[in-house]
Amino acid sequence: MSRVRPDARPPGAPGPTPQVEALKPYSVPSAGRRNALRLDFNESTVGPSPRVLERLRRLEVEDISLYPDETEARAAVARRFGLDRRTDLDLVLTSGVDEGIRLVCDCFVRAGEKVALVDPGYAMYRFYATLSGATVVDAACEEDLSFPAAALRVASAGCRLVIVGNPHNPTGAPAPPGFVEDLAAAFPEAIVLADEAYAEFAGDSSIGALGRRPNLIVARTFSKAYGLAGMRAGVLLGGREAIRWVARMRSPYAVNSIALLALVAALGDEAWMERYVTEVRAARDGLGASLRALGIATYPSAANFLVARFGDRAPALREALRRRGVLVRDRGDHPLLRGTLRIGVGTRAQAGAFLEALVPALAEEEPR
Length: 368
Hints:
Blueprint: H1 18-22, E1 37-38, H2 50-57, H3 61-65, H4 71-80, E2 89-94, H5 96-108, E3 114-119, H6 123-131, E4 135-140, H7 149-155, E5 161-165, H8 179-186, E6 191-195, H9 199-202, E7 216-221, E8 234-239, H10 240-249, H11 257-267, H12 270-293, E9 297-298, E10 305-309, H13 314-323, E11 326-327, E12 329-330, E13 340-344, H14 348-364
Parallel strand pairs: 1-11, 3-4, 3-5, 5-6, 6-7
Antiparallel strand pairs: 2-8, 7-8, 9-10, 10-13, 12-13
Helix pairs in contact: 2-11, 4-11, 5-6, 12-14
């Protein structure tokens, strides 16, 4: 009996564009994650400021029945990133950084133009570049998973868009200081999108360069350090000329009303975020040292996660940890990351709980 391909269409059925047909689906295993130690998706492990929940408990009918009003949230975000004192810069609120990536690709990249990416990298970069009809040019990570600055500079020549995760996901490696601005200066004909989803944990940002580089756009998220992953709130920051084109094409109601209220509340308690970031940095250093003491190789990270190499037992070890209520991410789908697990970092107490689960799991999966 002949087999039918899962994506085969019956005769006469409408077909997608070539770009959609070329997409590799991005599958998110989001079910069954509640009540576990969630170290797999790099979310906040403590949640948002209590002010967020306090504000949500005071929801009124019009908070839900009216279309979203971004006025207060835009002002709060502008203050947070210093744009309230600038007339040459602007921002666009987005439904998470993912929407920001898509907006930049759709706004600036024509079919057949080139987009430079670090490989391996965050899957949605390639997803949206492919959807825009671009040709992707890869800059391979180094064997030691350090940031491939030289390779990315070479790959960027002739590209319409260069996407730089800083720190980079999935490795956690930071770009060299000043690299993003230098790249934007070297290739003024290209849009350089700096994805700074983990910038709070790194303590470094390219936002200060925006006024000098009109082709530079910075994406920030409130999913990680601010604990609003479920709300889907992000922002694109850049020169007024570049941002006005993005603003022209996006949905006027991209960020829902509840997310806007939560965002304002979270930004009203910067001290909560700063305490959490300080705790994560301490936990990251301690967890790395503990893993190395167990003979497990780790790689330098400026983000809220670590990559650790466990070899062939990595998939089985991930399942052994899951049985103990600890979720981590297997990144072995890329040759450079084969045999690795990506471990999210939360508090020092949570890092300790992970290690308590890891030791018996290692014994259980000891090579025979």
